[in-house]
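As a warm-up, study this chain.
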Amino acid sequence: MKRPSRWSKAWWTPDLMEMRRNYTTAARRVRRDGSGVQERDEARKAYRKTLLKRKKEYWDDFLAKAKKNDVWMVHQFTKVRVPNRVPGGRSNSPEATEQTIMTHFFPPADDPAGMLPAKRHDLGVSDELAMIDEVSVALSKCSKKSAAGPNQVPYGVSKGIMLVNQKIIPALINDMLVWGIHPPMLKESIGVILPKPNKNDYTDCSSFRVIALMQTFSKIAERVVNNRLMKIVYESGLYCINQTGSLPHRSTVDAAISL
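Now compare it with the structure written out below.
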């Protein structure tokens, strides 16, 4: 290296720099026009193999030439480090960490409500075209980049199904509404723990939040039902005329005017 410093990677060599440059160039070419996939894979494999080899050679050389006080540096490099961004702090086992997280985010209820028998409500519609329009409107507001749920089926699959056959998804949702049944498998979700920004202690569970990745089919059905409920609310006048939150086509301008 031309200007080494105490922060430089001592195992970094000019040939590694050249191999990384070749790999990044090939990767950009693949992203740009899709050509040279094999060349990119070979360059990546060679770069990673040489990188691991250089690290091992430097480590072996460091151990061979280590002096008496270098044993503490070796200890710092080899000791197991506990990450400081784990909710619940340092636990003795993954099971203990899981129990701490579940207790914090999902505390047990003191008096859980009993299971009431399901009541059947016929919310289906007989107009097939209206149902197709509702599903199309709901899907138009769903991004293909949204994370999928446990079944890993993204919104793009549902949009593709609507292009091939517009009756499948509306018929499934309509049957759910007619019989008042939401299948248990569609209620499953994946909980993802995300750190809140600018927190002092990331071993505290309150420094994190949980988001649920639901089944995309359930979210489509939820949008359909929500649109129907909003229509009933508008027609029946069940909301305050000055309400602006959680309502479409309302903004802070409307809130200011109402004042």
